[in-house]
C-alpha cells in the first residue's frame, strides 16, 4: 500500500499516546501548518502527542483555469454552493482522512486519543469526516470551514461521533469563506447531522487566516478533548 504523504513530527516522549492530524487548505501543504507542532510541543501537556500534517495531491482546479495545485477537491466555482460542489472528490478525500486516522490506530494510538482538523478545504474535510467516520475519535476542529455536500452527508451519516466535540473558528472579515457559510455549516451539523457538542467561535477582524487568540482557544479545546494538562491551564 502506498504511504500517506505527510509532514510528521514525533512525540517528544515515546511511546506516543495521542495524535493530532491537520489538513491544510487549497494551494498549501502540510508544512504550512507544521508550526503547530513546534508551538504545542513547548507545553509539556503535549509531550506524548504525535503530529501529522498531510499533503494534498496536485489536481486541476476548474475555477483557477484548470491550474494544478495541491487540493483535497476541485472548486468549480467560488460560490461554495452545493450545486457547484465536487461531491465525489470531497468524499474521496474524506476517505483519505479515514486512512490517515486508521494509520494512527494501527500504530497503537487509541481512536479516542486522536484529534483531526483543518483549515478551509481541510476544515471542510474534517467536519464531513465527523459525520461519516466508522469509529469515534477524540475531537474535530474546523478553522474557516464550510460544507458543500450536505445532501450526500445526510445519505452517509452515522451517529458514531454525535457526541464528539467540534471546535469551529471563523473570522468575521473572511473574504474567501465568508462568515455566513461557516454559520450555515454550524447549523447543518447541529440541526441536521445532530452533532451535540459543536462550538462556533467568531474572531473579530480576522480574515482568511488564523490568529493568536484562535490558536490559543484551539489548544485549550484539544486539551479538553484529550483530558490532558487541565491542571496547568490558565
From TrEMBL:
UniProt entry tagged with the keyword Lipid metabolism: yes
Organism domain of life: Eukaryota
- Swiss-Prot/TrEMBL keywords: Fatty acid metabolism, Hydrolase, Lipid metabolism, Serine esterase
Single annotated GO MF: palmitoyl-(protein) hydrolase activity
Q: Which GO terms describe its biological process?
A: fatty acid metabolic process
Q: Name one GO cellular component term.
A: cytoplasm
Task: List its EC numbers.
Answer: 3.1.2.22
Q: Which InterPro entries match?
A: AB_hydrolase_fold, LYPA1-2/EST-like, PLipase/COase/thioEstase
Gene3D superfamilies given for it?
Answer: alpha/beta hydrolase
For the keyword Lipid metabolism, the answer is yes
Q: Which reaction does it catalyse?
A: S-hexadecanoyl-L-cysteinyl-[protein] + H2O = L-cysteinyl-[protein] + hexadecanoate + H(+)
Q: Describe the location of the Phospholipase/carboxylesterase/thioesterase domain by residue ranges.
A: 8-225
* Family membership: Belongs to the AB hydrolase superfamily. AB hydrolase 2 family.
Protein's job: Hydrolyzes fatty acids from S-acylated cysteine residues in proteins with a strong preference for palmitoylated G-alpha proteins over other acyl substrates. Mediates the deacylation of G-alpha proteins such as GPA1 in vivo, but has weak or no activity toward palmitoylated Ras proteins. Has weak lysophospholipase activity in vitro; however such activity may not exist in vivo.
- Designated name of the protein: Acyl-protein thioesterase 1
Instruction: Identify the taxonomic lineage of the organism of origin.
Output: Eukaryota, Fungi, Dikarya, Ascomycota, Saccharomycotina
